[in-house]
Every structure is written in C-alpha cells, then in structure tokens.
Design brief:
heterodimer, A: 137 residues, alpha+beta, Glutaredoxin, 5 strands, B: 137 residues, mainly alpha, 74% helix
C-alpha cells in the first residue's frame, strides 16, 4: 500500500491543477493598475477600434491559437466599434517582455485609447469575450 | 513548412505514457522507466508520430474514433517528448546511483505532465515554449 502513496499524491495534485487550469482558460483578468504602455496602431499593426481592440498574441507552438483567431475574427464582424489585431509573439519578443505575455494565446483587451483593461489566457468562449468587451466603455 | 499530425494521437500516447509511468512509480522499476525513456527518445529523434504508442493509436484506436481529425503542428508534442526524456533520464540516473528519492520525484513529475495532457489536454511544452524564448533572447 505504501508504494501507492506517491502515485496518489501526483494524481490528486495534478487533478487539482488540471481542474483549475481548465476553469481559468479564457477568463478575463482585469488589469489591476491602469498605467501600462499604451498600444498604438503602429505597434499592433492595425487601426484601433473606436471602443475597444482585442490583440491576440500567438505563436507557432500553440494549438489553441488558431481556434482563438477564428473565433475572435468572427466575433468582430458583428461589432463595428471593436477591432481585432493579431501579433506573432516570436517576432515581437520585446513587446512580449514589456507586456509580460507568458503563454499563447493571450488576448489583450484595450480601450479606445489603446490602454490595456485586462487580458485572457487560453481560448475564450463567446460569452467570456462578450462579458469582457461589455466592461469597456 | 512544418509537419502536421493528427492532434488526437499525442493525447492517446499521453494516456499510454501515464499508465507506464504510474506502473514505474508503484514498482520503482528502472526497466519500466528505461522502456519509457526509449519511447520518448524515438519521439524526439524521429517524431511523436513514430513511437510504439503512436503505432498503437493508428492501428487500433484511430479507426474506431468517431471524432474527425484535427491537425496540429508536430513541434509542441515533440518538445513534450524531450521534456519527458529529460525527466526519465534523471530517473534512471537516480535509480542506478541509489538515489530513490530522485527517481520518485522525476517519475512523479513526468507522470504529472503526461496525466495533465491525457486528462485535460494540457500541453506543458506549449506553456514553456514562450517562456524559454523570452529568456533566451
């Protein structure tokens, strides 16, 4: 029985982490301080939205990135005051460091001035994106 | 142009890996771990689609699956095999030098990663990739 203790510990801890991880994917995390760098059209490669902009950081090493891109591109079609920008993390490492992007996909939610209001890691669900954008005025 | 593989394959391989690593953890068998290390080595050198587990998936599991193929870049799962290989090599060294604690911890960590991949589709390599890139440049 003693030999099963390490196995039990690993499975319990891993399950706990796995459940937490699944639950927090796509979750909108509000930025605690509002004095981050302002992102401009020049930096993200496209005009900012009149109300909000979603900037998705992706990399080649990232299976969920494509699904996120497809979802967000589709969603902005129905929202004329929101724009979507796509940034390749590997070719923008300075920006990745400055913004402390740790994994892909990470989607930054910017207000009309290009200031980050919050971000979501992992593929968000539609409802999560709507909720995040609704909070930006 | 990077290689694409059936994304369901690595997850099933992770399941087989979980079973093998759990067995190694419970039996403290260096032979079981050596077998797994060889599997990881094949995955790293040739590619995750060429391991015995991938072969099992292709011949036995895939024809019976109802879901459709989704393709993913081979590099993240291949990187995961390298991480697994590193852990199992440490485990072998721990076992052969009489450091049982090292063996247990190394196998435990490899098991956690494989289990997270199998049960929650969590890709440890994907999470680590950007962090490694950021640190390197």
């Amino acid at each position: 029985m003693k030999t099963f203790i390490p196995l039990a510990i690993v499975l319990v801890l891993a399950t706990g982490f796995g459940l937490w991880y699944q639950r927090t994917r796509g979750e909108f995390r509000k930025k605690k301080t509002v004095n981050g760098p302002k992102l401009t059209a020049a930096i993200v490669g496209t005009e900012l939205g009149s109300r909000a902009t979603m900037v998705q950081f992706s990399s080649a090493f990232c299976t969920p990135c494509r699904a996120t891109k497809v979802l967000l591109e589709d969603m902005v079609k129905a929202m004329p005051d929101v724009r979507y920008a796509h940034v390749d993390a590997e070719s923008h490492l300075e920006l990745v460091r400055e913004l402390d992007i740790r994994s892909t996909p990470t989607t930054l939610f910017l207000n009309h001035a290009g200031v980050e209001v919050g971000r979501a890691m992992g593929t968000p669900k539609r409802a999560q994106v709507h909720a995040a954008l609704a909070a930006i005025h | 142009m990077s290689v694409s593989i059936d994304a369901r394959g690595p997850r099933w391989s992770a399941l087989f890996t979980t079973v093998v690593l759990a067995t190694a953890l419970v039996t403290s068998s260096v032979w079981v771990i050596t077998f797994q290390a060889v599997v990881f080595a094949i995955g790293v050198i040739r590619g995750p689609q060429f391991t015995p587990y991938a072969f099992l998936f292709k011949k036995l599991i895939k024809p019976r699956l109802k879901s459709t193929v989704t393709f993913e870049d081979v590099r993240p799962p291949q990187f995961a095999q390298a991480v697994g290989l590193a852990f199992t090599l440490v485990a072998i060294i721990g076992s052969t030098t009489g450091a049982g604690g090292v063996f247990t911890v190394a196998v435990g960590l490899a098991l956690a990663a494989a289990f997270l991949n199998a049960a929650f589709n969590y890709c440890l390599g994907c999470q680590m990739y950007l962090l490694i890139l950021r640190a390197r440049f």
